[in-house]
């Protein structure tokens, strides 16, 4: 007889409180729960709860709940109740209207206008950079100015001597407290923004002005009008650790990928090169030569680690994008 069809309750099971119900037990899970500690002790692995960070512990519990493994009891003394045919969650979702995608609002006006007197009108130079501490550095001729977006304060950081300047490129270090300056006399200077002190000067890197800079941890990559790209380790005395040659014009843009293994360079020769840091060869890994003007703005896709997506902006304002497959990159 089907008790549910006649609207009657299912009678309770007469089970002893000391004898579990074997049909309601998961013997595989019980065996794993009882022998896991013995196996770890035998293999010399000790996992204590205090070694797990709060985030890892929360992830472990969430994963166990999703997989149905968040059980602390091994013995079962009664059968589990039957799940309802239609839960409240599913019934509510059936009547819920599909959500419309939110439309992004693009501002029609800028939020801030900064005066930039004496800024050089030169497309090939990189005269501003936004640091990780929300500070914008702008080169105004021989003077470097800082604008703190958090407080709105503007200050003159340093003024370069006449025979060294003007400033031709700027790049904040990843820590946001050190800034690199490329100069017209081929020098590269490193400054500490907290103490307003020059840390060191890199000489002999280029034989022309330095118009592009890019950081990769402690490696500062410089690009000059001589078409040469140089990797400098700022921690050591002999700072030049690698040189890339492949451009016939001035280096206008440099950008390291998120992994720090590939470098994209754009030049006044209308060419984009991709270099591999791990390769022993200084030859470019990939070459894009279908642009019709100088290439300056380069950007790697931060969310795609399988294919390397590159966005390029030319001098004439035309932008293009492409994907480099793992075989090419």
TrEMBL record:
Pfam families: WD40_CDC20-Fz (PF24807). Residues 114-307 form the CDC20/Fizzy WD40 domain. One of its GO terms (biological process) is positive regulation of anaphase-promoting complex-dependent catabolic process. InterPro entries: Cdc20/Fizzy, WD40/YVTN_repeat-like_dom_sf, WD40_CDC20-Fz, WD40_repeat_dom_sf, WD40_rpt. Residues 83-102 are annotated as: Disordered. SUPFAM superfamilies: WD40 repeat-like. GO terms for cellular component: anaphase-promoting complex. Gene3D superfamilies: YVTN repeat-like/Quinoprotein amine dehydrogenase. PROSITE patterns: WD_REPEATS_2 (PS50082), WD_REPEATS_REGION (PS50294). WD repeats lie at residues 160-201, 244-276. It comes from the Eukaryota. One of its GO terms (molecular function) is anaphase-promoting complex binding. Keywords: Cell cycle, Cell division, Mitosis, Repeat, Ubl conjugation pathway, WD repeat. Belongs to the WD repeat CDC20/Fizzy family. This is CDC20/Fizzy WD40 domain-containing protein.
């Amino acid at each position: 007889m089907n008790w549910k069809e006649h609207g009657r309750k299912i009678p309770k099971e007469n089970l002893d409180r000391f004898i579990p119900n074997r049909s309601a037990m998961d013997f595989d899970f019980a065996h794993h729960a009882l022998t896991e500690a013995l196996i770890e002790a035998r293999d010399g692995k000790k996992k204590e709860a205090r070694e797990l960070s709060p985030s890892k512990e929360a992830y472990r519990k969430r994963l166990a709940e999703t997989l149905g493994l968040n059980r602390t009891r091994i013995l079962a003394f009664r059968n589990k109740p039957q799940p309802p045919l239609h839960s409240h969650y599913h019934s509510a979702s059936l009547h819920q209207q599909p959500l419309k995608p939110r439309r992004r609002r693009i501002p029609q006006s800028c939020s801030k206008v900064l005066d930039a007197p004496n800024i050089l009108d030169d497309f090939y130079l990189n005269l501003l950079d936004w640091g990780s501490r929300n500070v914008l550095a702008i080169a105004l001729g021989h003077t470097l100015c800082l604008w703190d977006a958090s407080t709105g304060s503007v200050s003159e950081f340093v003024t370069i001597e006449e025979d060294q300047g003007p400033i031709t490129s700027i790049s904040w270090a990843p820590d946001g407290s050190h800034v690199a300056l490329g100069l017209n006399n081929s020098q590269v200077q490193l400054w500490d923004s907290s103490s307003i002190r020059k840390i060191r000067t890199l000489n002999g890197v280029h034989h022309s002005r330095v118009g592009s800079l890019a950081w990769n941890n402690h490696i500062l990559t410089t690009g000059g009008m001589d078409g040469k790209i140089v990797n400098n380790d700022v921690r050591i005395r002999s700072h030049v650790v690698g040189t890339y040659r492949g451009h016939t014009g001035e280096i206008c843009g440099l950008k390291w990928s998120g992994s720090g293994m590939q470098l994209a360079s754009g030049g006044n020769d209308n060419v984009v090169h991709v270099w591999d840091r791990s390769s022993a060869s200084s030859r470019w890994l990939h070459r894009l030569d279908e642009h019709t003007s100088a290439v300056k703005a380069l950007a790697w896709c931060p969310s795609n680690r399988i294919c390397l997506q590159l966005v390029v902006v030319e001098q004439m304002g035309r932008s293009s994008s492409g994907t480099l497959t793992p075989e090419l990159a």
